[in-house]
Design brief:
Strand order of the largest sheet: 4-3-2-1-5-6-7
CATH topology of one domain: Rossmann fold
CATH class of one domain: Alpha Beta
Helix content: 40-55%
Bound molecules: magnesium ion
Structural class: alpha/beta
Strand content: 15-25%
Number of strands: 11
Distance between the termini: 56 Å
CATH architecture of one domain: 3-Layer(aba) Sandwich
Largest sheet: 7 strands, parallel
Length: about 375
């Protein structure tokens, strides 16, 4: 029996994780549940799983029947709940740089960190890896592409990969001409063709910033430089990613687009947890197609690569500017094309540098957001 924390329990990944956990009551005990502001949803989950500790970023009165749980409120509720309950595993499924503090804490106190928050590695990748090195904890990817690469690397032995190939659905605007992409609004962008996810990541998929963030995530997870991290557009989302070895052999991991597969693999690793999802039927699908990404229509992927090469200050600036621009886009304040223009403007004002502490990361993030908002007003 392992104890597990679900941080971001009311989001898309958190909810799917709880559905899997409900199927394996003798393998896992939920020790911590935290959420941002969906109090009623979190209270329901706390009733279902009876964790030791629970947290909400936005404080709410706790119903009397849940008073025996240790409650934590505020920005650092995930950190304090982890320190109070010290679970074996933590699934970090908070969106954005807001999840960095929880990931750093989980890397210190938990034996396994199940990572569904790519922004934590984009903004604080080196800090996370340094803590893991000291604690000896295991980092298990939950992002489907990185889970696929991780699965392909099982049994690779001493053979280093020559290249990693991340696949991308292409997002909701994949086939539109550039002018239409630039003008697109939230209604169009939030219709993801294959995956069902939260709003922020769905916008990131449409701009291909998501794939850019994933290139950076893969750099930290697998220790690969930018020029060995390729991206292929694959509209069917069946091949979740691939690994090429020195002899030219390419290993791929396939599955239907269902996040429960990647969540369950990280939870059960090294075992596999069946969860009753659909199965791949290649005879029905018939054809798998692939193409190179179009950086003219989707400049965010190129911006992310540029930030990875430029270094830590640029990666934090990229992420902060993107988070601010996506927020503005969802509020209807800028058109879709405003996202890449904002990120471009903020990267142009960023000075190269290393960020050695979480405080330095947060300060760089704050400045990037400020610059993003002023670029959007201009
Ligand atoms: Mg992904």
């Amino acid at each position: 029996m392992r104890t597990i924390a679900i941080l971001g329990a009311t989001g898309s990944i958190g909810g799917q994780a709880l559905d899997i956990l409900e199927k394996y009551p003798s393998d896992f005990r939920v020790a911590v549940l935290t959420a941002y502001g969906s109090a009623e949803k979190l209270f329901d989950a706390v009733r279902r799983f009876r964790p030791d500790a629970a947290g909400l970023v936005l404080e709410q009165p706790v119903p009397p029947d849940l008073a025996d749980v240790a409650w934590f409120f505020g920005e650092d509720c995930s950190r304090r709940a982890l320190l109070a309950a010290r679970p074996d595993d933590a699934l970090c499924a908070v969106t954005g740089i807001a999840g960095l503090d929880a990931v750093l804490t989980a890397a210190r106190v938990c034996r396994r960190v199940l990572l569904a928050n790519k922004e934590a590695l984009v903004t604080g990748g080196r800090l996370v890896l340094e803590i893991l090195k000291k604690s000896g904890s295991l980092l298990l990817p939950v992002d489907s592409e990185h889970s696929a690469i991780f699965q392909c690397l099982q049994g690779a032995g001493e053979n280093r990969p020559r290249r990693l190939i991340l696949t991308a659905s292409g997002g909701a605007l994949r086939d539109l001409p550039k002018e239409e992409i630039e003008r697109a609004g939230p209604d169009q962008v939030l219709l993801h063709p294959t995956w069902r996810m939260g709003e922020k990541i769905t916008v990131d998929c449409a701009s291909m910033m998501n794939k850019g963030l994933e290139v950076i995530e893969a750099h930290y997870l697998f220790g690969m430089p930018s020029d060995k991290l390729d991206v292929l557009v694959h509209p069917q989302s069946l091949v979740h990613s691939m690994v090429e070895f020195e002899d030219g052999a390419v290993l791929a991991q396939l599955g239907v687009p269902d996040m429960r597969a990647a969540i369950g693999y990280a939870m059960g690793y090294p075992g596999r947890l069946p969860f009753g999802g659909e199965r791949v039927d290649l005879a029905r699908i018939g054809t798998l197609s692939f193409s190179a990404p179009d950086l003219t229509r989707f400049p965010c992927l190129g911006l992310a690569r540029e930030a990875l090469v430029a270094g830590e200050a640029h990666m934090v600036a990229l992420n902060g500017a993107n988070e601010a621009a996506v927020e503005a886009f969802l509020e209807g304040r800028i058109p879709f094309g405003g996202i890449h223009r904002t990120v471009r403007a903020v990267l142009d004002r960023t000075v190269q540098g290393r960020l050695d502490t979480p405080e330095a990361v947060y300060e760089a993030d704050r400045i990037a957001r400020q610059r993003a908002w002023s670029a959007m007003k201009a």
